[in-house]
């Protein structure tokens, strides 16, 4: 697939679309493996995070008036979207930002079916067990369920959750410790509310006096700042090899200044690597916060010159924010272009390297080139726009266009009263980025950023 910045498929009449047989034979020769099905154009989006949902919505809009039948499927291990972006606030403000407000049933994606459209939308709830480079997807029941669930009805011939599509968008995202994200596998919403509320209640308990956050990235400092802002009498400590590694120095300086103002202790140049029950093995998406009084978090110095590094830090609660890992388990590394760390390599067009008909967006991708591409919801959404446009171009037989990496931007709230921000062309000057961060996330913890879905779960009257 080539990149051609001068081609615009929107200017081309629909009649230029290749015939169904031409499309299928092209798809067959490109995939070089199993025979494609005969019938409507089939597209599946794998994963219902911001990247997957925006790709699903974009494809539904772009193909609503397609001249022939289109089947569009969104596959998710849960029947709801969980707003990860607002978890630090929900953890400390169960009344203002109850966790139910972070849970959006996926059914609402199906309610706006356009009259007379050839496009049929479906959601398949189940865990994706495997995805072939022939675009065969195998979905099995999610945790605590006996069957896969098709909403509203199965794709023809795919009741058991196995099917082949013409185009795929891989948006399987990443996992990290609970409660920042929920474990992959399909936790039911009632159970999630219970577990999240349980963690929030234990954190609020006055016996939980010393809180340690392991990890000095954006999530670590945001979590620490939310806790300290909501509970100013608790001792909050961040332990990490480095604060905001890889971020511009003025941004790091701004963060240090806000954290110091909030009396959050930073122990850097240390690593936590020997705490059974705290740090699960790599790639186990089941880290949990630990609530054990007088837990000694063991530290190892990362500074060879240090002579007086602390060997442990006491805690009554420990939150883990040591970064994300990609959800690439369904992709056989022998067949798919995955990196050593499990990221899926894409071309600048967001097509998966060397695999016909497959695009990928969001946290799971390894984007080529020297520009830093963050793992951010807003970038996943931007990438989805390009992936959608490129699928439409591919359907029309047109050349693909590259995604343009936006200039580096970083904004985050540090509690409801402070923020840090680095904006293109401005950096941290005049505190403009910090003001933007406060506006975007300070007040409501970022709940308002979810503008692509309307209805969250109703909040129980007792909340
Ligand atoms: C605490 C926190 C705060 C953040 N704040 C911000 C912020 O302020 N702004 C911002 O832009 N970004 C923020 N981010 C980053 C943002 O959440 C991610 O970049 C974004 O969620 C990535 O979207 P995605 O669609 O690629 O993947 P994900 O959101 O990870 O979604 C992937 C989906 O695929 C599902 N899935 C995975 N494997 C399978 C499988 N085998 N079968 C079925 N389903 C599967 C997952 O369960 C999940 O629902 C924050 C992240 C965290 C953790």
From TrEMBL:
Keywords: FAD, Flavoprotein, Oxidoreductase. Residues 1-35 are annotated as: Disordered. Residues 13-25 have a biased composition (Basic residues). GO terms for molecular function: electron-transferring-flavoprotein dehydrogenase activity; flavin adenine dinucleotide binding. Residues 42-371 form the FAD/NAD(P)-binding domain. Residues 1-12 have a biased composition (Polar residues). One of its GO terms (cellular component) is cytoplasm. Belongs to the FAD-dependent oxidoreductase family. This is FAD/NAD(P)-binding domain-containing protein. It comes from Allomyces macrogynus (strain ATCC 38327).
């Amino acid at each position: 697939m080539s990149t051609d910045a001068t081609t615009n498929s929107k200017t081309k009449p629909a009649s230029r679309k290749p015939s169904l047989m031409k499309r299928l034979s092209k798809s067959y020769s490109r995939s070089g493996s199993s025979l494609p099905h005969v019938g409507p154009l089939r597209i599946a989006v794998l994963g219902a995070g911001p990247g997957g949902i925006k790709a699903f919505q974009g494809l539904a809009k772009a193909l609503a008036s397609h001249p022939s039948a289109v089947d569009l499927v969104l596959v998710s291990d849960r029947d709801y979207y969980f707003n990860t972006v607002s978890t630090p606030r929900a953890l400390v403000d169960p009344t203002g930002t109850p966790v139910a407000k972070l849970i959006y049933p996926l059914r609402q994606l199906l309610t706006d079916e356009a009259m007379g459209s050839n496009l049929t939308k479906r959601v398949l709830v189940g865990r994706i067990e495997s995805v072939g480079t022939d675009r065969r997807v195998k979905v099995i029941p999610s945790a605590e369920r006996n069957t896969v669930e098709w909403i509203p009805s199965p794709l023809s011939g795919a009741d058991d959750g196995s099917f082949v599509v013409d185009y795929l968008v891989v948006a399987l995202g990443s996992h990290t410790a609970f409660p920042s994200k929920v474990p992959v596998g399909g936790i039911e919403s009632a159970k999630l509310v219970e577990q999240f509320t349980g963690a929030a209640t234990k954190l609020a308990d006055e016996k939980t006096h010393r809180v340690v956050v392991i990890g000095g990235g954006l999530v670590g400092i945001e979590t620490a700042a939310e806790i300290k802002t909501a509970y100013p009498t608790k001792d909050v400590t961040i332990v990490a090899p480095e604060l905001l590694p890889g971020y511009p120095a003025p941004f790091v300086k701004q963060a240090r200044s806000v954290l110091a103002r909030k009396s959050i202790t930073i122990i850097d140049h240390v690593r936590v690597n020997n705490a059974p029950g705290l740090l699960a093995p790599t790639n186990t998406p089941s880290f949990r916060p630990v609530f054990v009084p007088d837990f000694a978090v063991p530290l190892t110095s990362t500074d060879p010159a240090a002579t007086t590094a602390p060997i442990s830090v006491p805690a009554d609660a420990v939150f883990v924010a040591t970064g994300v890992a990609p959800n690439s388990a369904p992709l056989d590394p022998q067949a798919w272009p995955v990196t050593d760390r499990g990221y899926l390599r894409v071309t600048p067009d967001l097509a998966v390297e060397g695999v016909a008909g497959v695009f990928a967006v969001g946290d799971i991708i390894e984007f080529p080139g020297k520009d830093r591409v963050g793992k951010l919801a807003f970038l996943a959404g931007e990438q989805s726009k390009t992936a959608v446009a490129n699928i439409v171009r591919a359907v029309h037989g047109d050349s693909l266009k590259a995604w343009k990496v936006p200039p580096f931007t970083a904004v985050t709230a540090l509690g409801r009263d402070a923020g840090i921000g680095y904006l293109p062309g401005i950096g941290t000057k005049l505190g403009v980025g910090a003001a933007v961060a406060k506006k975007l996330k300070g007040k409501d913890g970022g709940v308002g950023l979810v503008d692509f879905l309307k209805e969250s779960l109703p909040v129980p009257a007792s909340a």
